Amino acid sequence: MIETLKANLLSPIPLAFALGIFARLVKSEFSLPKDIYSALSIYLLFALGLKGGVELSHASFAAIVAPAGVTLLLGCITPLTAYAAMRYVGRFNASDSAGMAAHYGSVSAVTFIAAQQFMVRVGAPAEGYMPTLLTLLESPGIHIALAIGAIQRNKQLIAAGGHAAAQGSMKDVLHEVLTGRTMILLVGGLIVGFFMGEAGWKAVSPFFDSGFKGALMLFLLEMGVVAGDRLGDLKKVGPFLLGYGIVLPLAHGALGVVLGEWAGLSPSGAAVLGTMAASASYIAAPPAVRLTLPEANPTYSLTAALAITFPFNILAGIPLYYALAQRLAA
Predict the structure, then answer these.
(1) How far apart are CA 256 and CA 112, in angstroms?
(2) What CA dihedral angle connects 21, 24, 25 and 29, to 10 degrees?
(3) Which of 102, 178, 194, 240 could join 53 in a cystine, given CB atoms 3.0 to 4.6 angstroms apart?
(4) d(CA 180, CA 43)
(5) What is the C-alpha separation between 183 and 139, in angstroms, rounded?
């Protein structure tokens, strides 16, 4: 377990994030140009959608329908509980709460990979279509959270001054969320990936597969810079974020395991689903939140997701979810 933790924490993605924070701590002027950051966001979101769609094209309907159903249910529940805990227990504003809900309603692909590797090491690999569930869980959590944030922001604008512009935009909130860049790239990519299948994927994989991790490193480097700019905010909310980053994943993880077992997944599959529900995204959610809710403080969500929840899941969460799944299956 210690080797697993060390291997994951010393992997390129967390290291790039740490370098970004270090750059700000030493007051470096480094930051990615805005256009490059925007291009990386588009690339990462579309690549995730395409990969999920290709994996979906491999699975039979009968095998995946029940697990897919509970995964979508999880994708609706987790952003709501994450938002409620942040807003009504932590007393954060609506935008910060929605930003956090987008991260905890979505999935950490790195944590997902670690869970898959854990199951292989214990000699019980999970079902092959688990990457498809990853994509199914990714989108609802982000978009429900962003919709909550946009609606709450509009209500506050109207309450503050009753501006006509705010009232007008209130009518367009759902249109804004459903047609936003994140929805087009993630869900659109999933549909495109499903129809183009493996043959189509081979034609574009040199671009979308080989360069993915490198682009992700650059993206996390910039995210580290953004988080490093606002580390001072943690002095006000540190203890709450520590509890939030551990208790909420435990609750989401247990729920994911129970629903996975109920849907007929193996104990390993249920544990991987629980791990996905317990994880917090730092790939798809940050660009989505930054594009739709730019006023949300990224320090809260990125620090909780990367510095608290990620190491906790790697160190103790995954074995706990697997132990729960085995107990339920016994």
Answers:
(1) 13
(2) 150
(3) 194
(4) 15
(5) 8
Q: What is the DSSP string of 75-139?
A: HHHHHHHHHHIIIIIS---HHHHHHHHHHHHS--HHHHHHHHHHHHHTT-PPPTTHHHHHHHHHH
Asked if pLDDT for residue 298 goes beyond 70, the answer is yes
Q: What is the DSSP letter of 32?
A: -
| 222-239 pLDDT per residue, tens | 877 877 776 776 666 678
CB 322 within 8 A of CB 271: yes
What the block records as the tokens of 279 is 């994880």
Residues 6+ apart with CB under 8 A from 76: 140, 144
What is the C-alpha radius of gyration for the chain, rounded to an integer number of angstroms?
19
Each residue's pLDDT tens digit, 170-194: 455 566 666 767 678 878 888 899 8
Q: How many CA atoms lie within 13 A of 251 on its CB side?
A: 15
Q: What is the pTM of this model?
A: 0.74
